[in-house]
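From the methods appendix. Each design record in this collection lists the tokenized structure first, followed by the designed amino acid sequence. Records were kept in a plain field format so they could be parsed without special tools. The example shown here is representative of the layout used throughout.

RECORD:
FOLD TOKENS (208 positions):
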């Protein structure tokens, strides 16, 4: 396959997905979002597998990648519904942290234009060392930032799914045509002209 084909496009899409997943993983780590962290980690592994399969002409790996992209789209749709509070979901719940902590998205306190203010709670018994943090002035709510992240992931994954199916079909056709002309027969020519070695030896040593 030439460079300007679906194969090279899929390599580019996998690389783009890998970079986007690593960027998202960093911010999910900063926000202690354990469910997205696990999902991102698995996503990175499958994308690397798909990238390897595309480079090394391994259609089975690309099939695994294509199946995962469908799952990945579903996961990101769930994230969008979670932050937009669709279907009874609440962005303030501890679902994404497995109820381990009360952390929210890193963007909730560090979004564009956000200003964090800490108010001491020294007047409350038992909370002398704690402080209340309020965030004001955000130019964009953190939930919309998370929704944009997921939307980009969905868009790239859908395009990757289409190209993965196309590349798998091309690889399969090439393998079938190669097999048809005897490409996988290890000794295609020797079966025709091959003679027994003992007959050749007898012809060589016949008396004059």
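DESIGN:
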């Amino acid at each position: 396959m030439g460079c300007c084909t679906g194969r090279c496009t899929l390599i580019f899409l996998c690389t783009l997905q890998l970079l986007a997943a690593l960027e998202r993983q960093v911010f999910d780590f900063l926000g202690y979002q354990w469910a997205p962290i696990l999902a991102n980690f698995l996503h990175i592994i499958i994308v690397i597998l798909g990238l390897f399969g595309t480079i090394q002409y391994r259609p089975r790996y690309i099939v695994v990648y294509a199946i995962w992209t469908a799952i990945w789209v579903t996961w990101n749709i769930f994230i969008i519904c979670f932050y937009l509070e669709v279907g009874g979901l609440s962005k303030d719940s501890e679902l994404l942290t497995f109820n381990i902590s009360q952390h929210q998205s890193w963007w909730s306190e560090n979004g564009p234009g956000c200003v964090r203010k800490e108010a001491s709670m020294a007047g409350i018994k038992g909370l002398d060392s704690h402080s209340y943090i309020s965030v004001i002035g955000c130019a964009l709510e953190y939930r919309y930032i998370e929704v944009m992240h997921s939307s980009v992931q969905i868009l790239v994954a859908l395009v990757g799914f289409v190209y993965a199916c196309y590349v798998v079909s091309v690889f399969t056709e090439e393998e079938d045509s190669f097999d048809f002309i005897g490409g996988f027969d290890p000794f295609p020519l020797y079966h025709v002209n091959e003679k027994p070695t003992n007959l050749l030896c007898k012809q060589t040593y016949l008396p004059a």
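APPENDIX NOTE: Strands lie at 115-120, 131-136.
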